[in-house]
Amino acid sequence: MPTTASPLPPTPKEHWLFGSIYYLAKDPLHFLGENIPKYPHMFRVTSRFRQKIMVLTDPEHVKYILQDNNRNYIKSFGYEIIKLLLGNGLLTSEGEFWRRQRRLAQPAFHRERLAALADTMVACTDESIARLEQQVGKGPINITREMMALTLEVVARSLFSSDVKEAIGIVAKELEYVNEAAVRRINNPLRLPNWVPTPNNLAESKSINNLNKVVQDIIDKRRQDGQRYDDLLAMLMEAVDEETGETMSDLQLRDESMTIFLAGHETTAVALSWIWYLLDRNPEKAMKLREEVDTVLQGRKPTLEDLMRLPYARMVVDESMRLYPPAWIVGRRNVEDDEIGGYHVPAMTNIMVPVYFLHRDPRYWDEPSAFKPERFEKDKLKNMPRFAYMPFGGGPRLCIGNNFALMEMHLIVVMLVQRFRFVVDPSYKPQPDPLVTLRPKGGITARVEKA
To answer: How far apart are CA 295 and CA 306, in angstroms?
Structure first.
């Protein structure tokens, strides 16, 4: 049982006016990177604005809040801000409503259904290859933008049977803006409610409305054409809760569609961007990958069955997400008082789990900053704490689309490695931008060369 007699965790250096939250908001990666080695299990972030924040960096403690005692931990205050864009979808909803939505959506992500989507992923990647062929031998391009276009098309066609080429520019521009706007809100202790008509609030609302329109147009066209489809949108529209007999309302359908459509392509594109950077900086690993692909496929396109025979490609994906996890931080908030590691955790404390630093913790990873896909060879991580590696979260709220994303990245990496090398300027230094996702700041710019 928790007891207020237990001490609060230690706290790092404080700003004289705002507390240590000032340094967290100013430069999250620097603040966390500086203090996690000093406080290797947990520490408290102080705030003069009555926010209670703690940082957890011990995998067993993370397991406790995400799995063992998950009913006491709801999403943290940052997800309330993300709700402005995604509504009350799977990422942001809570309690019985979330459990109901998860039951309705889960069948669409079963492995058997995902197998049918491999051909669509390959077809979308073929179109990306055609675009990239036009850039061979020319000046550098922003490879992150190309990955965004590719993954957006994969999500739209795989899950909604829709072509969104005309909307790709809109989605890329508006999503980048709302991503940055969300972080500004999270980091600003004096933020005004979103209904106050400030220039920033108005611009953010306009971007959200534009994104909503893209998704709503897909739903509206579906309702009007009268055809039968075998995709996620059809399943969500037809799903009936066995316990209540209810179907999703139009608002719930929009929220779930928006969550899957936007979150489902952004995180994958970010991960792919970092993969191309890491392969360029580690040519011996790129060569090993290319040799595996050439040996197994001998120039043909991959199928789903081929992926089992391409284990090194999957290790490259896993290791890239270790070094640069798109979902770089996970947040929770406890409903009731608790005790973790001998420290008192008052009710409604925002718990930060910095996945980026868990993945680079020298207690669990040798040469944690090195790109070593081989560390994910079978059985090598069998003694690793479960929550030392969690690119898709963990516990009951493990990302519902994790298998979809892994299959997609595996296929895309294999197909693009067959055809191209992405050459990043040697002077480029990566700047992870800790927004809602861990984007490379400005995107990864690279020359496209033949493999």
So the answer is: 11
Token pair 């960096």 in the structure block, residue: 57
Based on DSSP, count helices (H) and strands (E) in the chain, helices before strands.
17, 12
Tens digit of each residue's pLDDT (9 = 90 or more) over 260-317: 877 788 999 999 999 999 999 999 999 999 999 999 999 999 999 999 999 999 999 9
Collapsed DSSP state (helix, strand, coil) of residue 424 = strand
Pairing between strand 141-142 and 53-56? unpaired
Asked if 165 and 153 touch (Cβ cutoff 8 Å), the reply is yes
Q: Which residue has the tokens 């404080």?
A: 14
Which of these ranges, 21-30, 183-192, 282-291, has the smallest mean pLDDT? 183-192
Report the largest interatomic distance among the alpha carbons of the chain, rounded to a whole angstrom.
Answer: 67
Q: How far is CA 135 from CA 54, 165, 274, 403, 421, in A?
A: 47, 19, 20, 31, 12
Q: Which residues contact 262 (CB under 8 A, 6 or more apart)?
A: 85, 86, 171, 175, 211
**Are the C-beta atoms of 353 and 75 separated by less than 8 Å?**
no
Evaluated on CA atoms 376, 399, 430, 361, the torsion sign reads negative
Output the CA torsion sign for 204, 159, 161, 437: positive
Tell me how far apart the alpha carbons of residues 156 and 264 are, in angstroms, rounded to a whole number.
10
Which amino acid is residue 113, in one-letter code?
R
Cα separations (Å) of 235 from 153, 163, 229, 324, 390?
A: 19, 19, 9, 33, 28
- The distance of Cα 241 from the centroid of its chain, to the nearest Å, equals 28
- In the sheet with 53-56, reading across from the earlier edge strand, the strands are 42-45, 53-56, 350-353, 330-334, 73-75
In 12-83, DSSP assigns E strands to: 42-45, 53-56, 73-75
Residue 330: phi and psi, rounded to 5, are -120, 140
Residue 209 has pLDDT above 70, yes or no: yes
Instruction: Report the C-alpha gap between 89 and 266 in whole angstroms.
Output: 16
How far is the C-alpha of 446 from the C-alpha of 424, rounded, in Å?
4
Other CB atoms within a 10 A radius of the CB of residue 245 amount to: 7
Question: What is the percent of the chain with per-residue pLDDT over 70, rounded to a whole number?
Answer: 95
Spatial distance between the Cα atoms of 33 and 111, rounded to a whole number of angstroms: 37
Give the model confidence (pLDDT) of 123-180 as tens digits: 999 999 999 999 999 999 999 999 999 998 998 888 778 766 677 777 777 777 776 7
